[in-house]
């Protein structure tokens, strides 16, 4: 198999990963290129990208500083306690919650750290034109890591925990609190600039599509498959991409079956997540287990309704709403939905984006457990509800990532103009 002949025109032809439409764009366009049918941002053209490695390096420096200094501290009855970022997972491990400890450490430190190092290495390798095989592997892996980096969610969890703790103890903020917030912001800014198609173009040269690829029609209607990684259009019978060699599928295989299996697993996890205690507080020898709902109700009783609302939204509304939304989208692939395509795509994108924010609750447990350990006076232990809730969040996230949105569009035919008026 060989790469197609170059096209001579001053336009580039790109397939959309979300609706399968092939569209033509000005070759010299700078900034983001959007799909005209579903407005999915396909790629962006930045001739000399020096900002991304600069952001990644700054984020890495902030992460290193955050690990070197204390994060939060408090004083109560003459007892002082200081917590570091690492303590958020170490304390969970000491309470027989190694899985929760590992997930916390992975999502807020290890994965973001590896991601940033990979970005720096890639930009060095692509600029110096060295280490091609490692670069190709990294370009494939980066999009998989991205949704599982949750430093920004941890920052929001720290703010929720602060409100929870301020009523009990005198909380102090240490340098790492600010450097970690800066790290979360810089990490977000870095990820927003990383795009697989652009990285593959830097590695393999400008994308050359087949001469007979017609813009304004779906890849499927032209017997073509679009590579989900590098954007190469090619014969739909190929099993591997002729350009980046990644496995190629016209549609994600068994997408609906996988999504339904993952949704059922998430629903099963929701039963212990909502009924078992997520935290057990022991004050002066008296144990007080609290479920998610009981925790939200306690805030409401004390008049902290904004926090009660955040906890209720993140712990109940979002996870259950997400399960129902994905189930609805699965149904929409099998029959004509009463919703228009604009609403359905918005629903798909919101469910994909919002799922990780439910991890706020898991991180609140990690922070409160790490902070509130004052021997006999007051101690907080994680409950089994926490790990079940974490399982529920992870399986709903996996379900939305396995869903292939092109299946919804497959019901809608191939006419660009009618879809434009629908989405417009
Ligand atoms: Zn599209
Ligand atoms: Zn490819």
TrEMBL record:
The chain crosses the membrane at residues 54-74, 99-126, 147-167, 173-192, 259-285, 305-332, 353-374, 380-399. The keyword Cell inner membrane applies. It is a multi-pass membrane protein. It is found in: Cell inner membrane. GO terms for cellular component: plasma membrane. Pfam families: PqiA (PF04403). Keywords: Cell inner membrane, Cell membrane, Membrane, Transmembrane, Transmembrane helix. Signal peptide: none annotated. Belongs to the PqiA family. This is Paraquat-inducible protein A.
């Amino acid at each position: 198999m060989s790469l197609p002949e170059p096209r001579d025109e001053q336009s580039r032809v790109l397939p959309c990963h979300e609706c399968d439409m092939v569209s033509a764009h000005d070759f010299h366009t700078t900034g983001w290129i959007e799909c005209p049918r579903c407005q999915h941002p396909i790629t962006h053209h930045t001739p000399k990208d020096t900002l991304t490695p600069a952001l990644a390096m700054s984020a890495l420096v902030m992460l290193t500083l955050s690990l070197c200094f204390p994060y939060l501290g408090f004083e109560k009855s003459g007892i002082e306690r200081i917590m570091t970022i690492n303590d958020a997972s170490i304390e969970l491990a000491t309470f027989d919650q190694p899985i929760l400890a590992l997930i916390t450490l992975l999502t807020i430190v290890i994965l973001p750290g590896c991601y940033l190092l990979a970005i720096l290495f890639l930009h060095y390798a692509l600029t110096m034109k060295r280490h091609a095989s490692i670069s190709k592997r990294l370009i494939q892996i980066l999009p998989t890591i991205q949704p599982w980096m949750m430093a920004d969610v941890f920052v929001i969890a720290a703010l929720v925990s602060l409100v929870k703790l301020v009523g009990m103890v005198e909380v102090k903020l240490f340098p790492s609190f600010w450097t970690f917030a800066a790290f979360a912001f810089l990490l977000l800014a870095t990820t927003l600039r990383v795009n697989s198609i652009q990285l593959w173009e830097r590695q393999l040269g400008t994308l050359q599509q087949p001469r007979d690829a017609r813009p304004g029609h779906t890849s499927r209607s032209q017997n073509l498959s679009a590579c989900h990684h590098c954007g190469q259009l090619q014969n739909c019978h190929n099993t591997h991409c002729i350009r980046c060699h990644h496995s190629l599928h016209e549609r994600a295989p068994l997408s609906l079956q996988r999504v339904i299996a993952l949704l059922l697993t998430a629903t099963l996890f929701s039963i212990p997540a909502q009924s078992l205690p997520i935290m057990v507080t022991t004050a002066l020898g008296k144990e007080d287990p609290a479920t998610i709902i009981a925790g939200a109700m306690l805030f409401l009783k004390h008049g902290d309704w904004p926090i009660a609302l955040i906890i209720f939204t993140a712990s109940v509304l979002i996870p259950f709403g997400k399960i129902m939304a994905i189930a609805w989208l699965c149904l929409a692939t099998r029959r004509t939905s009463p919703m228009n395509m604009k609403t359905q795509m918005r629903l798909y994108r919101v469910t994909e984006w919002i799922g990780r924010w439910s991890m706020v609750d898991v991180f609140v447990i990690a922070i409160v457990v790490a902070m509130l350990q004052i021997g006999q006076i007051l101690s907080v232990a994680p409950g089994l509800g926490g790990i079940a809730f974490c399982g529920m969040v992870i399986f709903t996230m996996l379900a939305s990532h396995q869903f292939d949105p092109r299946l919804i569009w497959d019901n809608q035919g191939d006419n660009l103009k009618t879809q434009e008026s629908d989405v417009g």
